[in-house]
Design goal:
Helix content: 25-40%
Shape: globular
Largest sheet: 9 strands, antiparallel
Number of strands: 21
Low-confidence stretches: none
Length: 544
């Protein structure tokens, strides 16, 4: 409670100060001279795709899993009710694809979009000039400044440079006022990029790097995972940190080495919550990420998590070709839980490149009931009375943030027998039981055994338990009297057996970067808490 009060007080004060410096009476001071003194561009390691250029020139913009056809008008002129699409458009990460431009017309198109943004969005707006979005946009303009200026008239070049200067001025003024920790870190990273491109004195560059590292100390845990516990945030930060790390190598070796140590631990933590499919597990706002982007990030480090263990409140089992990633349900401090999921005891399971059991992932940005996807029922986990083991505040100053219920959860990894033990206390006060989940990989990963135990804390317990297993897209479910056979899209067949509950099959969904979500199936084991002491289940790969 004390931490929540400190968070709310700090957020209120910073927000008030930010409104002061963004007041029109102050804002005119943001406009500075053009950035004629920019000495170089930041490195770009993300993949490019010339087809994206051609699609955009035809008016088709595939951003954040949504395809919008502008029918030839500027994308910045449209009111698209999809926050993630708008965010990707305004951040200008798509500008990298124009490195593959082959004609003057294609290069001119990129410059025209930037000039159109300046004309429409060049004046401060709290939505399109929020600190994180402005920081990412500045970094992307610095990466590809040559694309924006090549072939530009002197007037156009001056317009672009002056806009960039204004955005940089806004970041410098608002850097210490960001209410979200991720925003503050992104702004600090962007200002390192600015100092490098402007060839600022070594002392200034190193001071800005130290500020980044100080922020990182408060946001990255001892395992290298960001405290949002989101692979999506981890990837977003790694992209920007790798960029400035590569730029620092030229003239700031020690600062580069400091960032190298940091990014190595972050790479290892990201791998610890990734599956054999190559994707991070769908927890805490993470959904389908572009595969080529993930590969590009992985190529920047050889750090891998190749053993059974824990990281950042997650557990990882590895045996043979199988990987299980499970969530203890650890709830971070409120400043990190705006998009967190109530996913205590949930897991995802892959065998080779096949996904077997999964979570639903985040809701599409334009979906009306987005909170549903953050609840326990959207995860492969047990719930009681369809309630989660943690609460999402419905209203008030903490509205939308995940809050803990009961004592903190616990997780233990036993590498000797490839077992995870997860304990959740989130139902103890409401229903009188603690839940304990055991997950074990056997037979070189060809068998996953689970035991869900209901440990009583009082003589009278209540509630109806449902243990859900959301299945991968295109899994065919075949029912017989005493088992379920699951035929995956690859042709592999897994059998599912259970004991101690009734089984049913229901519809489910899985978030998709290209279709919003896929319709899938889920297996549900039902039991009254008063009747259940342990529910056992097992997935086994059928071999020819």
């Amino acid at each position: 409670m004390a931490h929540s009060l400190r968070f709310l007080a700090r957020r209120t004060l910073l927000s008030a100060a930010d409104h002061i410096v963004t007041n029109p009476l102050i804002r005119w001071t943001w406009t500075g001279p053009s950035n004629d003194d920019l000495m170089g561009a930041l490195a770009e390691f993300r993949p490019t795709d010339r087809e994206t250029i051609l699609e955009m020139m035809q008016g088709r913009y595939l951003l954040a899993s949504k395809l919008v056809d502008t029918h030839g008008v500027s994308p910045f002129s449209l009111e698209v009710d999809h926050d993630d699409w708008q965010d990707d458009l305004q951040a200008f990460a798509w500008l990298r694809h124009f490195r593959d431009a082959r004609t003057d017309e294609e290069r001119r198109f990129a410059r025209t979009l930037a000039l159109d943004w300046i004309g429409r969005e060049g004046q401060f707006s709290r939505d399109t000039w929020n600190p994180a979005l402005t920081a990412r946009r500045v970094l992307n303009w610095l990466r590809h400044y040559n694309i924006l200026l090549e072939g530009a008239t002197p007037e156009q070049a001056q317009q672009i440079a002056r806009s960039l200067s204004t955005q940089i001025s806004s970041l410098k003024l608002r850097a210490m006022l960001a209410t979200d920790p991720v925003d503050a870190l992104l702004v600090a990273i962007a200002l390192v990029g600015v100092a490098l491109c402007a060839d600022r004195p070594n002392a200034e560059v190193e001071a800005r790097v130290r500020h980044v590292l100080n922020l990182v100390d408060t946001q990255i845990d001892e395992d290298g995972l960001h405290r949002t516990r989101s692979a999506k945030v981890q990837i977003q930060l790694l992209i920007e940190l790798i960029t400035i790390k590569l730029a620092l190598r030229r003239d700031h070796e020690q600062a580069s080495r400091d960032l190298e140590e940091l990014t190595e631990s972050m790479h290892r933590a990201l791998d610890a919550i990734s599956l054999g499919t190559g994707e991070p597990a769908y927890f805490n706002g993470t959904g389908q990420m572009p595969h080529d982007l993930i590969v590009a990030i992985q190529a920047q480090s050889a750090a891998r998590a190749r053993q059974t263990g824990t990281a950042g409140g997650y557990g990882r089992l590895i045996a043979g070709r199988s990987i299980v990633v499970a969530d203890s349900g650890l709830v971070a401090d409120p400043e990190f839980t705006a998009h967190a999921h109530a996913s205590a005891m949930a897991f995802e399971f892959s065998h080779g490149r096949d996904l077997v059991v999964c979570n639903c992932g985040p809701a599409p940005s334009d979906y009306d009931d987005a909170l549903l996807f953050r609840q326990g029922i959207a995860h492969s986990a047990p719930t009681i009375n369809a309630l989660s083991a943690a609460a999402i505040a419905p209203s008030g100053p903490l509205a939308g943030r995940l809050l803990p219920l009961g004592r903190p959860s616990e997780i233990e990894a036993r590498s000797a027998d490839d077992t995870l033990i997860i304990t959740s206390h989130g139902y103890a006060e409401r229903f009188g039981v603690t839940l304990e989940r055991h997950l074990t990989l056997l037979a070189e990963g060809k068998t996953l055994v689970g035991q869900d135990r209901f440990i009583r804390h009082r003589s009278r317990v209540s509630g109806a338990a449902a243990i859900r297993f959301h299945l991968a897209h295109q899994t065919e479910v075949q029912l017989t009297d005493d088992l379920v056979r699951l035929r995956l899209n690859s042709g592999a067949v897994w059998t599912f057996l259970w004991e101690g509950a009734e089984m049913r099959v229901e519809d489910s969904v899985r978030q998709s970067a290209y279709f919003g979500f896929h319709r899938t199936k889920q297996l549900v084991l039902d039991s009254l808490v008063s009747d259940a002491s342990e529910v056992s289940w097992i997935f086994t790969l059928e071999e020819n």
